[in-house]
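From the methods appendix. Each design record in this collection lists the tokenized structure first, followed by the designed amino acid sequence. Records were kept in a plain field format so they could be parsed without special tools. The example shown here is representative of the layout used throughout.

RECORD:
FOLD TOKENS (386 positions):
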């Protein structure tokens, strides 16, 4: 429902995770008896969480470990892993840089050319460790990198940009034909990012295997500040899931949507699923794992833009192992560990057995959900007061 914001101009109120809450169900279920897995491209994953294609999060070792634990991690083909034979060395430089130096240093580091031989090498290294291999690149590189990745035996190919539409207008270069790419790739293709019903519907028609939802909500992303563009994740996920459901009714094809970014805690993850997500993609929470390559530092994918950076480097710290973050036992009080335990317990409270059933949970507007009765936590900066 749109409201007047000035003479002759209306705007729709949209919502983020901190503004809603999930209402407990009429029945409750033992959390150990719910099904938290999801299906993607004919394969069942025990963990419906995807590690974002960011250099501070995913490298070969991390991707293999995420696979071992039942999830999926995406390696960034436009990042340091494919620009440098020894990415650990340049990651060390980024980690040591002062806040004032970080963005400029990242810009310089990312000017090194991408070595196509490293694309095949990184994919092979993940496969050698029995990892499920997922890689990502920007649309400008998708045609060529898709061919190389396919030859190397990649399992999933992701085409990702700040904002993706089926129709892209440009005179200086030939826009990527997403439908053609999806037809020609043997591996399933995930496309992102978008935040609206109409664009999601058009992207689903390309033949993709999944769509990423979210523009600017990431912890290290500055797109919303730099460009003023974005839609809060609750509204974006609900709108885009409606497009998925309409597409399914029209075609009989159920294509999952993946809420990408904006989730800090288990509660945020649970809310994303209740809003209609089939899986979630997170970066900063997983950058805190001991296995993450940047030792607790994290930066946005567009931080390296040579002319208009839309990301920054942040220090998220190291909170525990990847297994602790996903499965516990949690040793912190802020909801950032045991995300799968939080999901199962939330499902039990809601009285739902599967993630798809979770899509029908009751959602309420609750602006006081983060503050009600939490004065001691806020004052002492513990738990929800951090």
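DESIGN:
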């Amino acid at each position: 429902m749109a409201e007047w914001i000035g003479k002759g101009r209306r705007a729709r109120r949209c919502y983020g995770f901190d503004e809603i809450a999930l209402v407990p169900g009429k029945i409750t279920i033992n959390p150990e008896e719910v099904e938290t897995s999801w299906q993607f491209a004919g394969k069942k994953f025990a963990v419906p969480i995807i590690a974002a294609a960011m250099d501070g999060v995913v490298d070969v070792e991390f991707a293999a470990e995420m696979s071992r634990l039942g999830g999926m991690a995406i390696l960034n083909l436009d990042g340091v892993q494919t620009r440098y034979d020894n990415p650990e060395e340049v990651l060390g430089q980024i980690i040591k840089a002062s806040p004032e130096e970080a963005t400029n240093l990242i810009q310089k580091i990312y000017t090194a050319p991408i070595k196509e031989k490293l694309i095949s090498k990184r994919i092979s290294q993940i496969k050698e460790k029995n990892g499920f291999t997922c890689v990502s690149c920007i649309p400008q590189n998708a045609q060529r990198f898709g061919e190389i990745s396919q030859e190397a035996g990649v399992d999933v190919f992701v085409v990702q940009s700040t904002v993706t539409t089926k129709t892209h207008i440009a005179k200086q270069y030939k826009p990527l034909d997403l439908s053609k790419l999806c037809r020609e790739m043997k591996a399933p293709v995930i496309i992102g990012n978008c935040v609206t019903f109409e664009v999601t519907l058009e992207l689903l028609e390309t033949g993709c295997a999944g769509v990423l939802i979210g523009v600017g909500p990431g912890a290290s992303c500055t797109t919303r500040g730099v460009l003023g563009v974005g839609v809060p994740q609750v509204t974006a996920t609900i709108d885009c899931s409606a497009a998925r459901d309409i597409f399914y009714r029209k075609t009989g094809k159920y294509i999952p949507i993946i809420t990408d970014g904006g989730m800090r805690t288990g509660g945020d993850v649970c809310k994303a699923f209740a809003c209609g997500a089939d899986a979630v993609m997170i970066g900063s929470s997983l950058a805190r794992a001991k296995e993450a390559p940047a030792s607790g530092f994290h930066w946005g994918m567009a931080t390296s833009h040579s002319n208009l950076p839309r990301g920054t480097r942040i220090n998220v710290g190291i909170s525990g192992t990847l297994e602790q973050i996903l499965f516990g036992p949690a040793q912190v009080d802020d909801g950032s560990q045991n995300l799968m335990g939080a999901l199962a317990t939330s499902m039990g409270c809601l009285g739902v057995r599967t993630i798809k059933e979770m899509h029908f949970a009751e959602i309420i507007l609750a602006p006081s959900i983060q503050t009600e009765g939490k004065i001691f936590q806020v004052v002492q900066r513990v738990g929800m007061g951090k």
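APPENDIX NOTE: The mean pLDDT is 93.
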